[in-house]
Every structure is written in C-alpha cells, then in structure tokens.
Design brief:
The structure is a homodimer. By secondary structure, chain A is an alpha/beta fold. Chain A has one domain: TIM Barrel. Helices cover about 50% and strands about 10% of the residues of chain A. Chain A has 16 helices and 9 strands. In chain A, strands 1-4-5-6-7-8-9 form a 7-stranded parallel beta sheet. The model of chain A has no long low-confidence stretch (mean pLDDT about 95). At the A-B interface, helix 9, helix 11, helix 14 and helix 15 of A face helix 9, helix 11, helix 14 and helix 15 of B.
C-alpha cells in the first residue's frame, strides 16, 4: 500500500504542490471553547502540559474541527527550565514566572538539575497524538530556542526588552555562552526524544529575536541554532527543522543560510518579495498572516491570504500566521482561512 | 562674520565630514542626577513638559555635560493628544495613560478639542534653548508619528502589541484614516510652530512600527509620514526631517524612499551593510548603537561604536543610539561614547 501523502512533508522536502499546506501557531488554545473546558480541569498549566491524556486531547482538538495539514504537540517553550527546577509557574494575566537566574550564579547547577525524565511526558503525548492523527496530517514537535529560553530564565518571566539578558550577554559573553550551551544540549536531548516519540518535523521558536544588533544576533541566535541543528543531525535525526526567528528583519536571510535549518518561519512584518530576492530559491518558508487579520476576518482575511500565497509563489511555502492565534479569534475565521488556502 | 559650522546640519545636507555628528535619543532624561532633581520640583510630567523654564533647563543639561552636536527639545510624543483633551497623565512605573478612544466614537470631537495653544509652551522652550545653545549645536524639534500616537490614544497608553489599534485599522480603514488625518494635520501645525520657534531640524518618531505587514505599513505608516512631510513643505518649511520607523526591518527602505524625509533613523537591529546596498547613496542615516551597549560600556562600547561608524562609512551618517538611553546608564559612558565618535 502506498504511503499517504503528507503535504507538509512534501513541501518541506522542496516540492511545490497545488496549494500550500496550512497550520496555525497556537492552533490548540484558548480561542477554542473545548480547550477552555479541558484546561479548566487541570490544576496548573505545567501539569496540564505534562499530562499526556489532557495534552494529547488539546493537541487533537483543532484537528477534529479543521482540515489542517499539521498538528503541533501541546506543550510550552519553558519546559526545559522546568526540567532544570527553575520554579516555572503561570500567573493568570501575567504569563510565566521563574526564579530569576543572576550573573555569577553557578551555572553547573542547571546541568545537574536538568533531567529529560522530568518532561518525558511530552513523548507520551506525541505517541498518543500520532496514533490518532489522520494519515495526511504531519506531527510537529518543538522547543524554545536557547536565547529565548535564556531570556525568560534571566528575567524571571516575560519582559518588554529582555534588558538583564542583553546586559549579561554584552558584559560577559563567555558566561552567557555557557548558559546557552547548557540550553543547546538540553534542547537536543529534548527534541531527539520527541522525534523518537513520533514527531515528524521539529520547530525551534526564537520568539525574542527583535531589536538585536547583527553581531549579537550572529553570536547568540544563529550560533546556538546551528549547534542545535548539528547536534540533532549528528544523532542521525533527519527530520525537517523549521526555525522561527521572530522579528529579526533582514537578519532572517543569514539565519536561513547559516543555521542549517530546513525552513524559515516568518513573522507578519517580513516581506515576501524581499525573501524571494534574498533567499536561495529552494529555501522553504512558512508564514505569515497577521494574527490581527485572522481575528478581523472578512475581506481583510481574504485579501491578505491571497497576497501572501501569491507573494511566495514559486517557492515551497507553508501557510501559517506570523505569530500565534489570539484567544479572541472566532473559530469560524480559522475555518474560513483553511478553506481559502485550500481553494474551497 | 562666517556662520558657525553645525556638523549635524552639514551631514543632513549630504556632506560627509571628518567624523559623524553625535547626539543621543532621550539625552535629557533620568540617567542624569541633575534631571532627576529638576523633575522632582514639578507637580506632574505633563506640567514639567509644558513649563518652559523647566523644560529648557532639562534640554540644556546634557549639552552642559557633553560635547554633543545636537539638542532635542524636552517634550513628550503625546502632547498632541494632550492638546485634544484626552486626559494624558503619567503613572509612575507604568508610563502614559489616556482616555481610550473607541471605534465608532465621533472623531470630529478630536478636531474640535485640538488647539495648538494648549501646547505652545513647547515653542517658548525652544526659544529659550536656542538662545543659550553653543553655536555649533543644532536644535531639533519633534513629534510622535500619527500611527504611534494613535496607538496610545486607542489603547489608552502603552501596550504590548497595539491590538485594538491594529484591529480597528484592519476592520475599518476609512475611519482609522480619518483619525490619522486628524493627527497628520495637528502634527504639521505643531512642527511648523516648532520651526518658527527655532527648531532647525524636525524628527518624526514612529516608535511602534514593528510587526506590521507591508500593506499595513505602506498605508498607515508611510502614507501619513508622507502627508506630514508634504504638509510642512507646502508651508514653505525647508528644515531637514528625520524619520524614525523603529523596528520596521527591511521596510525601512520603502519608508526612506517614499516619505520624502531627509534622513532615516535606524534602530539597533538594522544592518549597515544592508542599507548601503538598499538605500540611495545620498540618503542620510542616523543610528544605531544598542542602548544596552551604552549601559555596559567598556570594550563592548568601543567595538560596537567602531563597527557602526565603519558600517556607514561613505554615507552621510549621524551617530546615535537605536533607541533611547536608559535611566540605569552611567553618565560617564555617554562621555566615553562622545569621545569615541569624536576620535578623542
């Protein structure tokens, strides 16, 4: 029997099909009433992420509703610091909080605390999801990229300008490299485990790559991403890897060319025509609808979807948002988007 | 007697001198102890901005300490909504707050409330500063750009992702255009008044231009900036105009070419070599040291300053930060930076 066609994998292998595959960042999430109901049954967000029954159900919810081409495992980009005992918890309306890491702190403590076992429930989630996914849907695993995860660890949560992390990195790049290397190592182990559990594609989320000068970006973003990719490849892992350096402007070209990633995900400010001129013709791109347009729907959604598809024509392209879907988005707009991309 | 040489004006006229002129965004501000002392004597931040004795003193403080090539009038980018009676006030640790503007609200009320007289104290501040500035120091006036000011008015203050403003603009572009046009008109009046009062250069601060798709940026950022520039020119105002579309990535090239500005200010993520390839050779650039590097000082400050100057060599270049100086920066680092740029 022939293998079922997985459009996302085809596109990631460089094939240009009749239409782009489509999935949505944060497609399992609060905009879905069934998600909110499920989530209400868990004591904390971390426990929710690490409960394979709940997390697999959350992962599958959007797949039951919409004809999406990919499913991304429900988890959080901060599970690695959780597995380093950094006191990860979520404060309603404020987001994640962690015990801040300070300059001069003994970083070897992180390595000692780190244990993949603390988060291997994500593997079980992947196995459960994989067993239930329709044949044409590709399963994606992911991790936060080292710089982004480090900023949360240093700031003790989300922050406007990642000030302490930037100061630390400029002041003491050797020590900061050590921190990033610890995260690189953990990311490789964590992502390798996800592939073993059934992930067919990996994605590296560099959510905080805006506002950084080129030498900084080269050293603290491109460098660690390259190490993660090489580490995975040296373990014999061949699955496609999508990198998402959000907000990095024209530095995306260097990221795409130098990290070894298979595909680059673009935020909504990235300009299709520019990439067509500045990226190798066979580089796969993913993106990049403004989540505000998905929230608004209607004519704006129609024209922007069309513009984006045309903008990346002639290049392998995965349709997605430029950032995660927001909780206020009506699920019907997602249906409309998927239909638009599929030419229905 | 010959006119004194003003290096900033020379550079803005396209001349490449022996070194770039240098000034610092937010150079009058909380990092200076004498500023904090002065500010403590004012009942509110708005009253401080609109008190010519205090505001001119704040403007002049950094000029007395450092050999800067420009002085920017001490004011706030939200004085225009203040002059539209939007209830501007500043909450310590939170920043500006205003009465939020909602979709469907009668926008003509803004026009009726608007009166330049409510903020013409800024003109008196400029006159006082101009009278005291050393001959070689250029005086800069400024305003917030329409989109940026609109986001504060709609969100009721600063916000992470300008969500309500983006939704409004996508949902009802005609109405949003009307809002921006009101701000364009006010900005022209306000900036023209500043020139009359002695400003020799104008700067338009588009602080929130990151994360916007190209058609949005074109319509709501480039369009209004062009109208402001044309409006000033049609009044016979010929002073150089610096535009600062912060965080806009490769869209900076379109902004520089299409708005009619004299110079483009770049945030720290903008790459010098890219601009050399993508901007007309005579376009003046300003920037773009990471404020975190100024905070850190030492070798990082030395090497980054050197890299930036070399990166823009062969083009008229004004040295500045990529964003405002932060309150935790030691004033000695500013002295070090000015000396570095001046080759001392």
């Amino acid at each position: 029997m022939a293998e079922p066609v997985k459009l996302l994998l085809q596109t990631l292998s460089g094939h240009i099909g009749p239409r782009p595959p489509v999935w949505i960042m944060r497609q399992a999430g609060r905009y879905l009433p069934e998600y909110r109901k499920l989530r209400a049954g868990a004591p904390s967000f971390v426990e929710f992420c690490l409960n394979p029954a709940m997390a697999s159900e959350a992962t599958l919810q959007p797949i039951r509703r919409f004809d999406l081409d990919a499913s991304i495992v429900f988890a959080d980009i901060l599970l690695i610091p959780h597995a380093m005992d950094r006191g990860l918890h979520f404060v309603s309306g404020e987001g994640p909080k962690l015990r801040p890491l300070v300059q001069g702190e003994d970083l070897s403590g992180l390595e000692k605390s780190w244990s993949l076992q603390k988060i291997d429930a994500v593997g079980e989630t992947l196995e459960r999801v994989r067993a239930e996914l329709p044949d044409h849907v590709t399963l994606i695993g992911f991790a936060g990229a080292p710089w982004t995860v480090a900023t949360y660890m240093v700031e003790g949560g989300g922050s406007k300008d990642k000030w302490q992390s930037r100061l630390w990195a400029w002041q003491n790049p050797q020590e900061f490299d050590q921190l990033l290397d610890i995260l690189v190592h953990a990311s490789i182990e964590y992502m390798a485990m996800q592939v073993e559990a059934g992930a067919e594609v990996l994605k590296l989320f560099e959510s905080w790559s805006e506002g950084l000068p080129e030498p900084f970006f080269e050293h603290f973003i491109i460098g660690p991403a390259k190490k993660v990719v090489e580490g995975l490849r040296s373990r014999g892992i061949t699955v496609p890897i999508i990198g998402f350096p959000r907000g990095c402007g024209m530095l995306a070209a260097r990221y795409a060319k130098e990290t070894g990633i298979t595909a680059i995900a673009l935020d909504q400010s990235q300009v299709g025509s520019w990439f067509n001129e500045n990226l190798p013709k066979d580089m796969v791109v993913q993106g990049n609808l403004d989540p505000a347009v998905l929230r608004v729907g209607g004519e704006a959604l129609r024209s922007e979807t069309d513009r984006i598809i045309k903008g990346f024509a002639g290049r392998p392209h995965i349709f997605n948002l430029g950032h995660g879907i927001t909780p206020d988005t009506p699920p019907e707009h997602v249906k409309m988007l998927v239909d638009l991309v599929q030419g229905k």
